[in-house]
Amino acid sequence: MLVLQDIRDHKERIIEALKKRNLDADALINQVIEADARRRAIQTELDQNRNEANSIGKQVGQLQREGRKDEAQILMQKSAALKESIKQLTDQLRETEEQLRELLLTIPNAPAALVKPGKSADDNEIVATWGDPATLPDDALPHWEIAKKLDIIDFELGVKVTGSGFPVYKGKGARLQRALINYFLDYNTRAGYQEVQPPHFVNEASGFGTGQLPDKEGQMYYIEKDQLYAIPTAEVPVTNFYRDVILMEGELPHKLTAYTPCFRREAGSYGAHVRGLNRLHQFDKVEIVVISHPERSYALLDEMVEHVAGLLRSLGLTYRILRLCGGDMGFASAMTYDFEVWSAAQKRWLEVSSVSNFESFQANRLQLRFKDGDGRNRLCHTLNGSSLALPRVVAALLENNFDGQRVHLPEVLHSYTGFTAID
RNA sequence: GGUGAGGUGGGUGAGAGGCUUAAACCAACAGUUUGCUAAACUGUCGUACCCGAUAGGGUACCGGGGGUUCGAAUCCCCCCCUCACCGCCA
Length: 423
Fold this sequence. Notes:
alpha+beta; Helix Hairpins; 2 domains; eight-stranded mixed β-sheet; 18 strands
């Protein structure tokens, strides 16, 4: 949620930024300004009325103690009229506040200055590429066939016990999953991220805090009996650790990493692009979350991007980094970098990580603040990224490193897997 | 699942219709004193919003929502959460 004060102070700048998302920002922002002005007028009048009512109440008590019943009686009548007016104004205030809030909830984050305008993924900027797709096997098998051949992933068994999109990893495939998770966590903790194990279900307030609710309600699994959502990413529970928290300026930044399974309904996604490991209802991911001082968040974003890039290089995967255009960014993000690895068999790039700076957009909803040098409470900035999501990394590892007999694993994984190849 | 006890500022915790502007203590911060640290003393010390150029003034908030009353942290109703014990259980 955008900060109302910012809209008041920098109306034009915010409108221009939102236009990069192809929004009719003028109309939206003007509605906000208008509702805000209305709200303040009501509040001022209400406060005056209440002030009067309070002072009458005190006078009545005083008069009654002094035994001046008649005078007290007159004041009590006056109070009745005020009470009615207060009731009306309170209703109006609540209504206006609700309108304003609903309006603000529909407005996505304002893209940062570096973000280019654009309509779709075609307008994203490629900011870096590592490796060369042309050097990878030209006749590669798709990963689902390799996985079947080596008997390391059983999609049908998953369908039997649960449904499509819930694969079963077997033997060296299962061990590879565990190795990747451990390697990613170790890599992250070495860089100063504190490892945490959050719950895999969250309550409604948490879903709201990071912005999944109300926008993406249909994308999450919901357990009605206990009113809990299965997490779509560790971002949700971990960032919500900080809901309603006021940190000391000196303890920023907080850097956390967590492994969790992620659950996504992915309603309406079918076809060739979702075969195999490309899109699942349950998958494993190691996430990094950073709580930052507002003046440091973009430096930290760069640091996170370099961190993830280093991880991909260590795995020997050909990748590229995109800075998303305004039209392709998520609702809450001010700037997002996507990482894509090359899939040799599918001849396309697969997204394995998305690293974003949300600036104060989430912090405003979460009421996550820090106390600055002047003793003022200011909103933090929040950031997060995948480091990394497993399935597409596995897909690329299988396809790019298969020699017809076995899949050769990158050296960094050997000590984690206990073997150097899958055969 | 059963029974009971509770939710008050950063923490502990008093307050039981108007003398509350929420006591007191602890923590924190600033100052005085001081070789340094500590101690002592003095002062500051919740959040949000509104009015105001500033100084300052006002309103709301005692888990949440309703109600009674001229007036509610305090009385009534509903809900939520936490803790303890019992039962079950990895």
